[in-house]
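note to self — DONT lose this again. spent like an hour looking for the file last time. sequence + predicted structure for the chain T wanted, 829 res
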Amino acid sequence: MFEILGCVAFQHNAWLVAAAAVICCAGSWVTAHLFERTLDTVGTQRIGWYFLTALTAGVAIWCTHFVAMLGYESNAPVEFDPALTLASLLIAVFGATLGFLIAGTKLTRLAPIVGGGIVGLAIAVMHYTGMMAYRVQGVVTWNQTYLVASIILAVSLSAAALHYGVRRSKHSGNIMAALLALGIVALHFTGMTAFNVEPLMLPIAATNSAAFSSLALAITCMAALIVGTGLTSFLIDGSARAESGEALRNMSNGLLMVDKNLLIRLYNDRLMELLDISPEDVAVGMPLGQFLQLVGTRTGMDAARTQRIIDNHNQWIAQHGITRVEHHFDDGTIVSIACRPMAGGGAILTYDDVTEAREGQKKIEHMAFHDMLTGLPNRVCFNKRLEGDLRTAGEKGGQFALIAIDLNGFKEINDIRGHSAGDRVLVALGQRMEAVLGDSDFVGRIGGDEFAVLHRIASEVSLVDLLGRLEKALFEPIAVEGNEILPGASIGVAIYPDHANNVADLVSNADLAMYRAKHDVVRSVCFYDASMDEMVRARRNLASDLRLAIERNELTIYYQVQTSVHSGEITGYEALLRWKHPERGFIPPSEFIPLAEENGLILQIGEWVLHEACRTAAGWEPPYKVAVNLSAVQLAHGGLPGYIMQVLLATGLQPERLELELTESAILSDKERSLHVLRQIKNLGINIALDDFGTGYSSLDTLRTFPFDKIKLDRSFMLDVEDNPQAKAIIRAVLALGKSLNIPVLAEGIETSDQMTILTVEGCDEAQGYLLGRPAPLDHLLESGQITLLDLKNFEALAAAGRQMRSQITPASDTNETPESAIRAAASG
């Protein structure tokens, strides 16, 4: 050891040794990092990096040796053999190339060690070939121990250097550089220690030291140029890699590139994050299969599933086109994988987390095929299911039922309780129906208050049982905001293939059965039969004609007289709506009024009747009262009092001449609100009559809570009053009730003089019926002389004055004037 140090210190030029050391360290560092870069590339790029690595290593080795050898002081004349000197350079370059090629193949675990050993041997052969080119005038002897030791040091240190170089740890490049530099230095100075020269005392010119120094400087510059070229290439590539690495790190998707041998060549941090893999567990050069096994282990896949994923990846890479698939992990994550094979083999794979996108897509699809309020399938979704069930039943046989459901009185619920209450009813009924369905049944919301159910008929009793459960669910009360609502529904059933063999006819026939149930007072469930077609078609046509009748002003008002029982004098007229169909003649109100209610026309018709009756009655002489019926829908309308006030002002009719009739059932649908609206109307000076008293809902509490101006006894009590003591007793009780409450009673349906006599004896106040006068148009009343009309000009002026005063009226709460007095003032002005 001391001999080696002595050789370095006393037998070498210190400056040239320092230059050799710089060349050795710089060359080794550049070589190590170029070799690392070589391992990260494939194809022609790899060949290029191998060339730069081998050239840099060979030049660094040879230049280190030659500069250090020029600095050796042999005390004898020295010259160099050009051929052997050049041969030593080629040995260094080609030996390093072979060694790095073998180390980079990774064919076996020993490949880096074998390759490193070859590099070490190349260093040794280069050194001793160079020593053979060193012609010194003297006797040369070799110390065999140091010679062998130098070779062993070169081979072992070089093998260790490349072994660490391929491990790709954080500091592997620096370790490789240090070991490689140490191997070069150890070989040279140990070998030079083995070299001994005994100068010959011959008259030969001395060695030109200045020339050797110049040569050493030239070699150093050449080494710097070549090593610098390698370093520059490394730095340029490193900068480019840094930029691409930054791009990779900021990619929104994971990236993986594999070569033709299915070894990983490139990946990014997003891939590690997406697959929940630690970056320390993955390295460039890792086999794709090993990487996918790691993914399978981390995500809890079994071996068979992991192998299927590996096989799928291999298949995608082997294909020519782009493959796109989606993988669903057990934790709900959905990853979209795109594999793009490369021309030279291998592939680029991208991994995207599409979980949120797919969830959003599912929500959009759910919104497109489901009702937003109830969450049930909508019409589009239901029709698809219906078409599928019909197709399946047609192919495999069997029956299924289409059940059409329409809620009863749902419009009234919205009008009276508000749309929020109606929404709650829909939600509650939807939940109830879902709860009573079987596993194969399907329910959907088809429209506003329409639902439909599909039921595969497994046995004769299965459909009957389902209908029973549905009927119970649809008719049970629903509590909404402290109130109890009785929903109810009409249910129609059509069966495939008994009633229809296609979707359109099946839906139509179920609707027909549902409409039959809606008009059946006994049954809420009806099955389709062929006789329904004509009846329902006629009703639909009539409803369409009713709309046209409104547009064409085909509706007219008839008036039926009301008289005093005691004096026989006329007390007023009831306005009764009539419709003369252009083809069918007069349509009974009992037929077209329900149609108007079903089709949402009753409010429009009711407003027209009120306005027309008030306009006509305003010109009557004598100024009899006019009675107009109010429907439950009109009563539930929030602007009814205001509209009535506008009508009175526009027509000039005084409020005490208007009497509004309504049934107790219309009040009870929302009693508190209805009574509040009636009080507002009564404050206008208008009379309120309770119609059809004694039938349906008849409650003394209603008479107690609101001061009606009249009670109208239903005509059904007059039919058998002459022969039925019970009927006479009921009439007597109602008349006594009216007297005790100081409310006049009018009896309807008086058709015989005996009925009139009974009313006279019992003390009834007013009567109305065919005996006293049939309903008639205004022209007939004028011809009979019962009434006359005021002067037309005065009448028009009165109406115009009323309309003009409308804008001058202020609410009673803001002035000392009551609504009644305001209307009176407008009418008299």
